[in-house]
């Protein structure tokens, strides 16, 4: 049996992670003769945070596991899991990191610079609508570190200040009641909430969507919701900055129904992770963090924005 | 006793039509729905807009359609926990088939066939082998979602081949007086279900099985085939909801319909279906689903923190049954 | 000629031999009392005649022709009606719906046939009148008294022109007045040439209404006698086993 | 009949002890668990390691502890769908209290009080007002999770004030021969539950209520208080599991315990509890939970595609009941 | 002195007047037949005496002292035992567990008292022997025949030294042989000075065993006569209402 480089993701029900899986499988097919293999797993649902911890433990307990890369849906909980398991093999994070104070528990983080990503989402919104207004952010699991960092970057960009936990008019931006919305990565739920918030706040000027769920998980209702606003979006009177470039997202950008997308490279994460883990096993120096790039898409750049 | 009295007695109905209606949970939940709508129209500008009503009615449909099938199951005294997963699997089958280049008819046929096979599997275990419905459909809840992951390789499916646009307009369009298509399907399905329950032998048997399965067997009601049919209808309703929802969402992920079973059961129960069997209506299923959606929508519109949503919906579930309890209580003690 | 003839009928449930090699024949217009201890196999025997169970062995004949029943409807088609020991009523349905359960009347054709509520209410009302029971066809059975429930169960047997009516303890736990009604119904059935099998633990009932008494013990027939040539004491002895067989 | 025969008959037991055991679903599921363990020990190096066994036994505990409470509820013929949410709410109350600077005793007391109040609420509606358990606890499922969101403002709680470390070692430590602490709690709770069911009047009444509630009432069993107690115990078991799980996880979000109710019911049912009431044991709850965890764990260790896991678990749920069905089937036809 | 005396007892359920202004008294060792149509209020009346329901109006006295019962246990403590119409058995429990249901024997003290299985099995076995019933204390009631079930329900009344035993249709749907057993049990109870109230629809049973018959109609007492000075015909008339009152 081969030595396993294990990737544990937040949940199998999010297609973002399938792209990671495909990267992982590509590595396997290119390294068929290697003594290592990439093994991808995770709980069935992103909301099953304890389930992810159990899988991490199972994998740490397996003798064939020689390194592990985790995307924690609840950073604190996975930190605690690693702490108690006290693994002797290298542990890294992927896509989502542990909280800053727990950084010592993992060797490195491979993935998006989430703070920067959020900041870029905010930058686009601010650039389009400098005077600001009422906005709402759409988030995933309340405990997901990557999403929280994006939200922080987004707020910092809009407010021009650092570390605010809620926008109350700073830089002209205000988060309305009922926000942020935590969707647990469920697209339909996200659009439904956005619909209601828009109805309740006719003077809303924008959404900051910290994960692409509503766009890739429920593209049609998303379109239905924002088609009437297409002109305002084109005129920068309504601004939407969204994460990811999965599924229909780029098409939606091309239709002009989102001001800007800031996408990640999950395939690259999955493809690179085994190499990074092998380096860690071999004791080679590895940077911390290892950032994968961002792909930024607007209506005009939609055809070319994705790095192949 | 004089013959005339006997004649009179036999000709009488115990309850007038009105007292029957006033005594029904469905009626009072309906009143609650109407009252909520009136209140919301005044309390918030956003409620009575055509856009919001369009959204509300459309959001209701998915739960309502499955609640129609679930109501049949509940009337026979059963339960079907697998509907959320079956919806997901049927959507995936549709999506994967169409993505592979087949037309929408093939996709829908494959999807419906999947639903019927699953329903038949549940039904046969329950009716012929005597498995408890809760256990069988709980197992199927796990199995069907897992098969959906396998079928799609867990990717998001959002390109539906040559008939892509047709599928999307089927689920997302509004072909008739600006009413969302799903709403039309829901109304048609509710009319059919209502008709079947009230006017056909099959419907009568569904009630009889729930009332006293043993008696139904003894009097020659084909209990087992009907139970199988009922679980097939339930799975079918989930499949149909899945097809429509796919057309509406324009993308399928494997978390589609997660946890939906409890919402659907809640809708049926709020609408007056009795989990002990023998009682339930198509109208009730719709009204129950409507109440849940209106609560959800109104909390958003009223600016009430989304965290409180569950408290309101949970309380509604309990309160809906309270009325029925008070009535029973009065009668007995 | 016998309206019903059973030859060497047996029925076992797994290891339990509920009915064991029973033969009997019943003439038109004859009232037969079927007696026996609890668990003697009385209900099982009549359920086979009513198409609820299939015999494990043996044959049944009706009017001389072999009778094979797969389901209750088939028995009814042959003119066999049964009042079950537990009445077999659905509490959530109306009296009329219960009377017609399993053979609902419909209007229209083929797939468009719908339940004919009006006719069912009317017919059920007529039957209750015939039975002199104050039972309203549109009422739910749930709210009915024991006597009314009994009337509903018995009304079923009057739906078609039965040749033979099987009654499984129709008088257990009903009051004196209603017992009298049931017995007089049995007389009326007999007068119309309908054969009746009456299962009962009440010696006086059987002796007042039956022409013949059949006794089962542990699934076997141990007696088949004219009432006129028997006595309650003898039947009691046969039931308990004090008398072995006659 | 001679007196000696009568004496003999009365002295007899219908079934020998052995045939009783061989006829029980719990026994066969136990055999399945043992067989799976033996197979896995040979099939994979990873299974029979002390580390893995430590993990498995600890993972079992949360479902198993709640399944103990659930088994009591199921024996009385009820069901409790709210346990997953109650676990979440109790964890939150513990977390929020300790985070606010209170000691662990205060936190645990608050948490347990919350559980008991919720259980009493469920129980009173069910026992005294005659609400269907499914409906009440379905409503509570919604309400309790929503309250957890309100209590925590939907944030992650991971700092537990002065007694932080104590809480973590309570749930995450292994104070006794290297056995994970939660396992010890589970064993103690199972012994207590088993003792109560078999040796106390309370336990006898729990079975009597499930066997024939009306008969129990007539013979003077205090049916209503006992039903309330049973729902309180169920909520309590969820609360205890929540406390232990918090200590183990070290962080709480409002997703904790989502969907757990179905897993717990599955464990109880696999272990032989009958949803119709009257049947169930503490051992069964443990064995059922163990089977589910072993399947989950082994699929990962055997490198089986994660997509298929649900299929295996779902099938196990159905198969566990199959045995019992076959036995009943043989006996009746 | 009367062992039990009811004065103007009434009970209504909502609008339904189940028992209406009934007074009666029973002497030690007396067997009283309680008859009436279905729904006449017989079960409701004995359930009040057994502590299952509280009277809406009226008072009960036992041995001259006022009797207020909140629950069945209290009735038992006063020496009142009842065999319920539906036997009130739990199918999932053993025969012994059913016999002792609600008054389990325990060993040990206070919170450490545990069920005393051994003694309960032994005592139940003794009771079954006394009743001449082949019933095994360790068997589940689920698998028992009608007669065995009846034995279990009756055995309960023998647990303590009852002063009065209420039997609600103990002979409905049981066989001739078992009816005889029950009637002889009633004789034995009477001989020990225990008062018995027997509810039955079977005229012969009541006339063979009772000293006195009380007839209820629509909740009201319409007759209370010595058996010797009445006749089945008269009682029938009273039950049906052909005779208004005596
Ligand atoms: N469906 C069944 N499965 C297994 N055993 C059965 C079934 N029906 C009846 N029996 C058994 O067959 C035997 C005969 O039962 P049956 O109901 O015919 O008796 P019975 O003479 O009608 O008694 P009773 O006077 O109590 O109604 C009994 O031992 C009974 O337990
Ligand atoms: N718990 C109850 N709630 C409401 N009504 C009741 C209740 N118990 C009995 N009744 C009603 O009270 C009346 C008297 O019933 P009861 O059971 O005492 O009659 P009974 O004389 O025992 O009849 P039977 O011979 O059929 O056993 C009936 O109308 C019955 O429906
Ligand atoms: O990186 C993200 C992942 O962690 C999230 O939960 O789903 C989509 C991505 O935005
Ligand atoms: Mg019978
Ligand atoms: Mg009665």
TrEMBL record, chains B, D:
Segments passing through the bilayer: 27-48, 60-77, 109-131, 174-197, 228-252, 264-292, 299-323
Keyword flag Cell inner membrane: yes
Organism this protein belongs to: Neomesorhizobium albiziae
Keywords: Cell inner membrane, Cell membrane, Membrane, Transmembrane, Transmembrane helix, Transport
One Gene Ontology term, aspect cellular component: plasma membrane
Highest taxon in the source lineage: Bacteria
Annotated localization: Cell membrane
Keyword Transport among UniProt keywords: yes
InterPro entries, per the entry: ABC_transp_permease
Membrane topology field: Multi-pass membrane protein
Molecular function GO labels: transmembrane transporter activity
Main localisation: membrane
Name of the protein this chain belongs to: Ribose transport system permease protein
From TrEMBL, chains C, E:
Keyword match Cytoplasm: no
Domain of life, source organism: Bacteria
Limits of the ABC transporter domain: 4-243
Pfam family for this entry, one: ABC_tran
CDD domains with a match to the protein in the record: ABC_Carb_Monos_I (cd03216)
GO MF entries: ATP binding; ATP hydrolysis activity
UniProtKB keywords: ATP-binding, Nucleotide-binding, Sugar transport, Transport
PROSITE patterns tied to this protein: ABC_TRANSPORTER_2 (PS50893)
Protein name as catalogued: Simple sugar transport system ATP-binding protein
Keyword Protein biosynthesis set for record: no
């Amino acid at each position: 049996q081969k030595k396993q480089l294990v990737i544990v993701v937040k949940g199998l029900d999010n297609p973002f992670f399938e792209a990671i899986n495909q990267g992982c499988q590509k590595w396997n097919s290119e390294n068929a003769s290697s003594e290592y293999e990439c093994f991808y797993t995770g709980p069935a649902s992103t909301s099953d945070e304890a389930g992810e911890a159990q899988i991490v433990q199972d994998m740490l307990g397996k003798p064939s596991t020689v390194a592990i890369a985790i995307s924690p849906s609840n950073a604190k909980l996975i930190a605690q899991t690693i702490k108690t398991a006290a693994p002797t093999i290298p542990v890294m994070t992927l896509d989502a990191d542990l909280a800053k104070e727990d950084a010592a528990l993992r060797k490195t983080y491979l993935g998006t610079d989430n703070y920067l990503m959020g900041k870029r989402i905010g930058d686009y919104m601010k650039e389009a609508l400098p005077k600001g207004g009422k906005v709402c952010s759409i988030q995933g699991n309340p405990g997901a570190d990557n999403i929280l960092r994006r939200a922080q970057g987004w707020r910092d960009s809009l407010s021009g200040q650092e570390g605010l936990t809620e926008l109350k008019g700073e830089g002209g931006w205000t988060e309305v009641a009922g926000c942020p919305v935590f969707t647990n990565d469920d697209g339909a739920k996200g659009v439904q909430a956005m619909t209601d918030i828009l109805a309740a706040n006719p003077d809303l000027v924008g959404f900051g969507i910290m994960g692409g769920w509503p766009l890739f998980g429920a593209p049609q209702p998303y379109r239905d919701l924002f088609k009437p606003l297409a002109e305002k979006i084109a005129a920068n009177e309504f601004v939407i900055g969204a994460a990811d470039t999965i599924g229909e997202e780029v098409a939606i950008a091309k239709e002009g129904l989102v001001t800007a997308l800031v996408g990640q490279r999950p395939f690259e994460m999955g493809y690179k992770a085994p190499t990074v883990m092998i380096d860690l096993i071999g004791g080679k120096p590895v940077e911390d963090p290892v950032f994968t790039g961002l792909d930024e898409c607007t209506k005009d750049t939609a055809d070319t924005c994705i790095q192949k | 006793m004089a013959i005339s009295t006997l004649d009179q007695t036999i000709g009488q109905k115990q309850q007038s039509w009105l007292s029957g209606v006033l005594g029904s949970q469905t009626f009072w939940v309906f009143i609650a729905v109407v009252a909520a709508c009136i209140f919301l129209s005044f309390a918030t500008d956003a409620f009575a807009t055509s856009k919001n009503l369009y959204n509300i009615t459309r959001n209701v449909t998915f739960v309502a359609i499955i609640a129609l099938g679930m109501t049949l199951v509940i009337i026979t005294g059963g339960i079907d926990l697998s509907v959320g997963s079956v919806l997901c699997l049927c959507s995936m089958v549709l999506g994967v088939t169409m993505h592979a280049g087949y037309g929408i008819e093939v996709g829908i046929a494959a999807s419906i066939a999947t639903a019927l096979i699953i329903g038949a599997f549940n039904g046969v275990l329950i009716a012929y082998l005597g498995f408890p419905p809760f256990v069988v459909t709980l197992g199927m809840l796990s199995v069907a979602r897992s098969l959906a992951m396998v079928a799609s390789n867990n990717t998001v499916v959002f390109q539906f081949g040559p008939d892509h646009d047709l599928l999307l307009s089927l689920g997302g369009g509004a072909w008739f007086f600006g009413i969302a298509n799903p709403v039309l399907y829901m109304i048609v399905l509710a009319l059919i279900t209502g008709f079947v329950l009230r006017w056909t032998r099959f419907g009568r048997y569904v009630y009889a099985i729930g009332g006293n399965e043993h008696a139904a067997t003894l009097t020659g009601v084909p209990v087992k085939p009907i139970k199988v049919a009922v679980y097939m209808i339930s799975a079918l309703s989930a499949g149909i909801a899945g097809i429509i929802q796919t057309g509406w969402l324009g993308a399928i992920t494997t978390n589609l319909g997660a946890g939906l079973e409890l919402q659907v059961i809640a809708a049926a129960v709020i609408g007056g279906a009795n989990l002990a069997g023998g009682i339930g209506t198509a109208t009730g299923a719709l009204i129950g689903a409507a109440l849940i959606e209106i609560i959800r929508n109104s909390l958003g519109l009223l600016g009430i923190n989304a965290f409180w949503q569950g408290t309101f919906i949970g309380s509604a579930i309990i309160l809906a049954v309270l009325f029925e309890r008070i009535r029973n209580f009065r009668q007995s003690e | 000629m016998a309206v019903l003839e059973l030859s060497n009928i047996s029925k076992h449930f797994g290891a339990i031999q509920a009915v064991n090699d029973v033969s009997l024949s019943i003439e038109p217009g004859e009232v037969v009392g079927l007696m026996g201890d609890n668990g003697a196999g009385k209900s099982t025997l009549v359920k086979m005649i009513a198409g609820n169970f299939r015999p494990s062995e043996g044959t049944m004949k009706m009017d001389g022709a072999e009778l094979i029943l797969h389901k209750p409807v088939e028995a009814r088609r042959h003119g066999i009606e049964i009042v079950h020991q537990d009445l077999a009523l659905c509490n959530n349905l109306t009296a009329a719906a219960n009377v017609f359960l399993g053979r609902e009347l419909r209007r229209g054709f083929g797939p468009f046939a719908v339940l004919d509520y009006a006719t069912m209410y009317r017919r059920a009302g007529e039957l209750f009148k015939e039975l002199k029971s104050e039972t309203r066809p549109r009422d739910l059975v749930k709210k009915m008294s024991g006597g009314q429930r009994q009337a509903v169960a018995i009304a079923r047997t009057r739906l078609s022109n039965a040749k033979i009516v099987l009654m499984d303890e129709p008088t257990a736990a009903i009051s004196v007045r209603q017992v009298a009604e049931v017995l007089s119904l049995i007389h009326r059935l007999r007068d119309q040439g309908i054969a009746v099998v009456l299962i009962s633990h009440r010696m006086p009932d059987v002796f007042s209404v039956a022409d013949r008494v059949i006794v089962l013990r542990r699934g076997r027939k141990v007696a088949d006698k004219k009432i006129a040539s028997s006595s309650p004491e003898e039947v009691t002895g046969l039931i308990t086993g004090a008398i072995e067989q006659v």
